[in-house]
Design a protein that fits this description.
Elements: E1 5-10, H1 14-25, E2 30-34, H2 38-55, H3 75-90, H4 95-100, E3 104-107, E4 111-113, E5 119-121, E6 126-127, E7 129-134, E8 138-140, E9 154-155, E10 168-172, H5 176-187, E11 191-196, H6 207-220, E12 223-226, E13 230-235, E14 239-243, E15 248-251, E16 254-256, E17 260-262, E18 294-296, H7 314-322, E19 336-338, E20 344-348, H8 351-358, E21 362-368, H9 373-378, E22 384-390, E23 395-401, H10 405-417, H11 437-450, H12 456-470
Parallel strand pairs: 1-2, 1-7, 2-3, 7-18, 9-16, 10-11, 10-16, 11-12
Antiparallel strand pairs: 4-5, 5-6, 8-17, 13-14, 14-15, 19-20, 20-23, 21-22, 22-23
Helix pairs in contact: 1-7, 2-3, 2-5
Length: 472
């Protein structure tokens, strides 16, 4: 029996559409199967959060502090802006534009079958291919809290489509989008409580950065309750959340913001031997699942940053599925963004991870944005830039918490991926953004650490200068 396609993509995300477009440009015959409406819904969430976060910044304040006197948004007008932005963002990767590229687009849910041969089937199609790529959407993990399932709780995906913004909300969880929504609502004057059973707001970051994030949320007006487990949730026109210590919280809405997990229940992955774990789909360094012809990319890879808007794993998965699977995925270089105001960008290891792995060979250098001229000129001095550098000049990790994070962190990730040593950065041409001087300050701080009194470089240089002066 002939093979129908070179590649079949089980999609539902922007990454899935990008994978289809890339494969079509490679000359492959491609089919994209995705549930209707999921891509637009995810785009509406991310764009809606960004629009909410920037609302207060238009009043001429410092961009993140609360201004209670500022008028709130016209929700209907804001929804119209979100819809227009969503349509604009998805235009280049719409199903219609993919169809003109030769992609066979199928708006349906599919599932895998292995008999008589491996195929992805829909209600009326059976699609066979040489390779398959999984790019399914994600959904929040529903915690096992007594009474929660019987209440009309909402998820992060619901808020752009609600009739009004909630005046009160309890957000369960500490995923990046949950943190961003809590801050955005609080900065609009809403009463927001972020509730998590974990003791640290950002569990995969250094404790001091997590504490900084917690302080920024509190400064925005969010009530942060960490390390508190709900024992029961009831609803009788108003939500009542009972905690372990007997405290009862009241709110008009409960929003689920727990860690996302891939929506793969209907794909019949068990027939392939693929079993999603707690962190997402298990893949090797070439993005192959337990089945060698099935690869995965996008948010389904899981992890704390599962909703991060990065696509560097897409071309790896596509080309490994179409050609010889020799391209490797290095999550170490994956640039991630926490979409708060100011934002947190990170790549590589944290300081504690690097020092645990490399010991004294890993040095931490840090510059406060309050010490930089560009931050003062922009009127936003909140944040810091932290790098973890190996003794040989390799950059092991970077955290940038500030308005410049979205611009700088992809640049740093590219430098790490190309193995540019920090001692060679001064030879690079001027970087194309206004915060390039941050690199100069970080480089100067690193040099000061290496050349401080008592180090062999400083001692050798002093002995050399002393010898030169003694020669007259």
């Amino acid at each position: 029996m002939a093979i129908d396609y070179d590649l079949v993509i089980a999609g539902g995300t922007v990454q899935g559409r990008r994978a289809a477009a890339l494969a079509a440009r490679e000359g492959a015959r491609v089919a994209l199967v995705e549930p209707p409406g999921r891509v637009d819904r995810d785009l509406a969430v991310s764009l809606g959060l960004e629009r909410l976060a920037r609302w207060r910044g238009q009043g001429g304040n410092d961009g993140w502090a609360v201004d209670p006197s500022a008028p709130g948004p016209d929700w209907a007008a804001l929804q119209a802006q979100i819809q227009a932005a969503t349509a604009l963002a998805s235009a280049s990767l719409s199903l219609a534009s993919l169809a003109t590229m030769g992609v066979d687009t199928i708006a349906a849910r599919g599932q895998f079958e292995i008999r008589p041969r491996l195929a992805l089937t829909t209600a009326d199609r059976r699609l066979r291919a040489r390779g398959y790529v999984l790019c399914p959407p994600t959904c929040p993990t529903v915690p096992t809290i007594p009474g929660l399932a019987q209440t009309p709780y909402r998820t992060l995906e619901d808020f752009p489509h609600g009739e009004t913004l909630p005046d009160q909300a309890i957000i369960l969880g500490r995923s990046p989008l949950a943190i961003a929504l809590a801050q955005a609502l609080a900065r609009l004057g809403r009463s927001v409580t972020l509730l998590s059973r974990g003791d640290q707001l950002l569990p995969h970051e250094d404790s001091d950065l997590s504490l900084l994030g917690e302080q920024l949320l509190r400064a925005s007006g969010v009530t942060v309750r960490l390390g508190q487990r709900p024992t029961a949730i009831t609803y009788d026109g108003q939500f009542r959340v009972t905690l372990e210590d007997g405290t009862t919280l009241h709110s008009a809405q409960v929003i689920l913001g727990t860690a996302p997990q891939p929506e793969v229940e209907n794909l019949n992955l068990a027939a392939l031997g693929v079993r999603p774990g707690v962190a997402g789909l298990a893949v090797d360094d070439r993005l192959r699942t337990a089945h060698p012809r099935v690869l995965a990319c996008g948010p389904a890879l899981g992890g704390y940053w599962a909703k991060a808007t990065d696509f560097q794993d897409v071309p790896i998965a596509v080309r490994n599925a179409l050609y010889l699977p020799h391209r490797q995925h290095r999550a170490f270089h994956r640039a991630c963004l926490l979409p708060t105001v100011p934002a947190l960008g990170r790549v590589g290891l944290t300081a504690s991870q690097a020092q645990r792995w490399f010991g004294s060979e890993a040095a931490v250098i840090q510059v406060s944005l309050g010490d930089t001229l560009a931050a003062h000129l922009a009127g936003d001095t909140t944040g810091l830039c932290r790098w973890v550098v190996h003794r040989d000049g390799r950059l092991l990790g970077a955290h940038i918490w500030g308005a410049c994070a979205q611009d700088l962190i992809p640049t740093v990730a590219g430098m790490m991926q190309n193995d540019w040593r920090i001692q060679h950065w001064e030879r690079l041409p001027t970087l194309p953004h206004s915060h390039a001087h941050l690199f100069d300050q970080m480089l100067a701080a690193w040099q000061r650490q290496r050349w401080q009194p008592g180090t062999w470089r400083r001692d050798w240089a002093e002995n050399w200068c002393n010898w030169r002066r003694s020669r007259g």
